[in-house]
């Protein structure tokens, strides 16, 4: 992957050099008073003139368009759809609109540096499943949500520096995304421009609490999030029952455990830790059991999951977190769970505020994962809403007096959630939640 990135960068440099050389040539030509010549296999080379065709060429079997310095304000509809690299540096693009690039499905790199971009709409990068490299440096971007990047699952090289970042709550999701260790090539060198007391701080390392002052009532939880208490493992797995057939299963339910037991057999496939007293899942809690496929943690009172708690669980298919005390997931918690199929989230006090967005977008992005029971419990105004509906309303910036009407409408997310409910065949749980609604 790094090699690919390097190659792409080299190509960018080459393109830049080539452009310089060409500029030199055209200047010479102008001085000599000669007419422009045709370049091999491409359009007329004439710079600083809008509306002229861009250079389209193929290099190492990949199609490029070089539209640098054309005073463009957008991508143009007549460009070939099979472009893999788009060079749009030094134009006059102000805004990236929804679906602006959606017909260029093969695009691997997109160079938008040195434009005037100040606004990127949420679905501007829709359809760019193959994009690995995105250059946005030297623009006028002040705020940006992580949401714009959910359509770019392959993105591994992102440039954001030389933008006047306003380091406020609005870029908190972006900052947390950039700070996930695996995203080490995303957003390096970008710095806050405002507010004055944060000027010069790097987005890569700034503490997100500085961006988003905490609300009073979530403070105890947040403090935990900053320094998760280390609970010493107190027991080893010998108190659990072990079954070898049909799959290696360790049954540790109802053992009054306060932490994951030690010495779990390394090839355990199913681990039942339900009905214990585990409050915190610490970093690398399941490091010893890389083959785990089914993990049951229901009925524990779990309050906090370290972002690296599930690290290494690449084979996990089922995860049961029903009936715990979870308010949200910290950024990163789900990142290693490549093969997750079913996720039970019911009966947790999900808190519908900004911190729930990560969980929601992860699930939306990983649409093959079936999940059950993601419903707001607090604050009061969103109680009983599907989290998807809350997130949608968050972005609609709906005036407060319109909210009740909105709450009656069925949204797409509701529909999806409901379909999942039907397919899940967990009737007892369903009845349970209906009863809850009746009583509350
Ligand atoms: C939820 O978990 C608690 C322990 O944390 C347990 O006492 C309670 O019975 C569980 N509720 C259900 C419905 O299983
Ligand atoms: C997870 O818990 C729910 C009840 O909340 C139950 O219906 C479901 O079967 C459990 N799944 C697993 C894999 O344990």
From TrEMBL:
GO terms for cellular component: extracellular region; plasma membrane. Pfam families: LRR_8. Residues 403-429 are annotated as: Disordered. The keyword Secreted applies. Residues 163-213, 348-399 form the LRRCT domain. Residues 1-15 form the signal peptide. PROSITE patterns: LRR (PS51450). SMART domains: LRR_TYP, LRRCT. The keyword Transmembrane helix does not apply. Keywords: Leucine-rich repeat, Osteogenesis, Repeat, Secreted, Signal. GO terms for biological process: ossification. It is found in: Secreted, Extracellular space. InterPro entries: Cys-rich_flank_reg_C, Leu-rich_rpt, Leu-rich_rpt_typical-subtyp, LRR_dom_sf, LRR_TM_domain-containing. It comes from the Eukaryota. Involved in bone homeostasis. Acts as a negative regulator of RANKL-induced osteoclast precursor differentiation from bone marrow precursors. This is Leucine-rich repeat-containing protein 17. It comes from Microcaecilia unicolor. The gene is LRRC17.
């Amino acid at each position: 992957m790094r090699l690919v990135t390097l190659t792409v960068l080299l190509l960018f440099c080459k393109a830049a050099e080539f452009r310089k050389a060409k500029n030199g040539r055209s200047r010479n030509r102008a001085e000599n008073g000669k007419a422009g010549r045709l370049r091999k296999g491409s359009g007329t080379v004439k710079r600083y003139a809008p509306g002229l065709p861009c250079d389209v060429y193929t290099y190492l079997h990949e199609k490029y368009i070089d539209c640098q310095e054309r005073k463009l304000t957008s991508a143009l509809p007549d460009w070939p759809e099979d472009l893999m690299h788009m060079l749009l540096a030094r134009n006059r693009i102000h805004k990236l609109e929804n679906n602006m690039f959606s017909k260029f499905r093969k695009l691997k790199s997109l160079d938008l540096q040195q434009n005037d971009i100040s606004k990127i709409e949420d679905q501007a990068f829709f359809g760019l499943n193959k994009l690995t490299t995105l250059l946005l440096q030297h623009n006028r971007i002040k705020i940006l949500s992580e949401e714009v990047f959910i359509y770019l699952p392959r993105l591994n090289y992102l440039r954001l520096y030389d933008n006047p970042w306003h380091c406020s709550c609005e870029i908190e999701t972006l900052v947390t995304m950039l700070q996930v260790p695996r995203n080490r090539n995303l957003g390096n060198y970008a710095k806050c421009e405002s507010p004055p007391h944060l000027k010069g701080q790097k987005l890569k390392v700034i503490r997100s609490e500085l961006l988003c002052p905490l609300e009073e009532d979530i403070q105890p939880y947040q403090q935990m999030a900053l320094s998760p208490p280390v609970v010493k493992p107190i027991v080893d797995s010998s108190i659990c029952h072990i079954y070898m057939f049909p799959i290696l299963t360790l049954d540790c339910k109802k053992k009054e455990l306060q932490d994951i037991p030690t010495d779990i057999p390394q090839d355990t496939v199913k681990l039942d830790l339900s009905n214990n007293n585990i409050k915190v899942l610490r970093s690398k809690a399941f490091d010893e059991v890389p083959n785990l496929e089914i993990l049951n943690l229901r009925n524990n009172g779990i309050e906090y999951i370290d972002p690296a708690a599930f690290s290494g669980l690449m084979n996990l298919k089922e995860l049961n977190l029903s009936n715990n005390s979870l308010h949200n997931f910290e950024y990163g918690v789900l990142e290693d769970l490549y093969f997750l199929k079913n996720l039970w989230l019911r009966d947790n006090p999900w808190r519908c505020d900004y911190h729930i967005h990560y969980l929601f977008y992860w699930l939306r992005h990983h649409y093959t994962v079936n999940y059950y029971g993601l419903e707001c419990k607090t604050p009061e105004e969103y109680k009983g809403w599907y989290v998807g509906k809350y997130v949608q309303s968050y972005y609609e910036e709906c005036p407060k007096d319109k909210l009740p009407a909105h709450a009656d409408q069925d949204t797409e997310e509701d529909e999806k959630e409901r379909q999942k409910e039907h397919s899940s065949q967990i009737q007892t749980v369903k009845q349970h939640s209906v009863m809850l609604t009746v009583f509350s």
